[in-house]
Amino acid sequence: MPFKSVWLVTFVIQAFSMLTFFSLWTYPGSDVNLEKQEPEVPIPAYSRKVDVIQNNIVHCHQDISRDPLSEKCLPSPNLDGTCSIYARGNRKLIQPLRFNPTGSRKDLKCKLTELVKSCDTLRAAHGYITNGARVSQEEKEFPLAFSIKLHKDPEQAEQLLRTIYRPNNVYCLYVDGKAHEIIYNLIMNISRCFPNVHVIQERINVIYASSAHVTSEMQCMRKCAESSVKWKYYINLTGQEFPLKTNLEIVRILKSLNGANDIESYNHPVLQKWRFSKKYRLTKTSNVETTEDKEPFKYKLQISKGSAYGSFSREFVEFILNDNIAQDFISWFNNTYSPEENVWATLNTLPWAPGGYETEIRHTFGNFLSRAVIWESDKVKCEGRYVRGVCVFGRKDLTWLTGRPQLFANKFNYKMDNVAIDCLEDIIRNRTVSPNIDTLSWYYYRNLPHAKRYADRSREVILHEREETKSNWLRDQTSKQADDNNVALPIRNEKSDVLHVLGGTMTMYKVHGEVL
């Protein structure tokens, strides 16, 4: 075949092939069923809702007039469905964690250092609820006291404050004595805008694992006790924690405790008795062990261990501040290692302690109400990152966090991932506007062992038992010391057995052989 003919045939075949491919790609025939998959549209779960009549997207806050500056300064991470994606755990759409080196808002007018120049601007820009008309009667009749301790990141601490702030509550802010003076002055300027926010001025350096944690906490307890607000519970926080419930939800949940404290408390591990077997000496930077033996406490009691943070009834706080044995015990623990993990946990087990109990309450049993936390040893995976064995939550943890029954979560770092706390703030604000208390985990709350302990006991009976119990306890202690100075410590006689449950750290427990 002539070369010219070969070239022509080749050209025709190639042209036909290209036309065929193009036609199939553009107009797929019935035999080639290439159904186009529509990408999943993120449904906004919190910041916006759909008006079914007009089919328009509107703010959930539409019934509240908002300052234009708050639209710029308050985080709105869900305008593109971000919070919805993470809360529902849609891993196909989840973006990788991005490090935010500054954590500050882009608009310079929204910087906290600028906002505090005018109290009106600060309150409006950050959406503080200062109008009593926006607070329910139930919240007014059940005010709360909060303490917030911080040593860095005042912007994150202020985000916590504005989320939990109500004009009928009382707040104590404690800035570590080691913190920069700029941070202290900034917190002082914030407090001047609110009559119920107090800053401790007699600050001390809060050294890690030292008695300074107990001392600073008691300073805030006294400040709140001196307040004219007749608060019902005291909740101590750090600036790196954030609420999982609205103020109304916290009130309703705490009321279900029937006056009981929520304090993590279990027998102190034998292998950690070194913490109070030797005396410790406090230096400018650390708590140093000495060679001197620690003298035993003058009364025989079982030392307990637990979290330094919890929910304390007002009567228990007054007991801590005023009871002579409680004061002696706190003083005895001053020169030990990390006493904040022993003091509240042990005092809560004293028979006459208001709201106290011997039942073991601990994170691993799932019955510690005050905090949601993931330790490195827990079965639940941390989607953020571990720092000193504790999960610092990221945006991927929102699926777990939004389903927890606890009141607060520990901990967050807005410089690492600001989306996590921005989404939680958005969620809390919208649930505040549109509350639905019935959706809470009431089976969990009603069956907490410490809530059940106080469920059927009147206040008068409890007060009578308390006065009688202390005198009997002291008499027994005196007789025991006279008979045998080496009498064995009383052992906690109520324990909760661990029951592993999928989907949580441990969310069920067994008390007295009965599964609740």
Structural account:
This protein is of the alpha/beta class and 516 residues long. It has one domain. The protein contains 18 helices and 19 strands. It has a five-stranded mixed beta sheet, sandwiched between helices. It has a three-stranded mixed beta sheet with strand order 7-16-13. A three-stranded antiparallel beta sheet has the order 17-18-19, with no helix packed on it. Helix 9 packs across helix 11 (314-322). The model is unreliable at 23-63, 99-104, 485-490 and 497-516 (pLDDT under 50).
Label this structure with key terms:
single chain, 516 residues, alpha/beta, three-stranded mixed β-sheet, 18 helices, 34% helix, disordered C terminus
Task: Return the structural class.
Answer: alpha/beta
DSSP strand tally: 19
**Total domains, how many?**
1
Query: What general outline do the C-alpha atoms trace?
Result: globular
How many strands, what sense, and barrel or not for the largest sheet?
5 strands, mixed
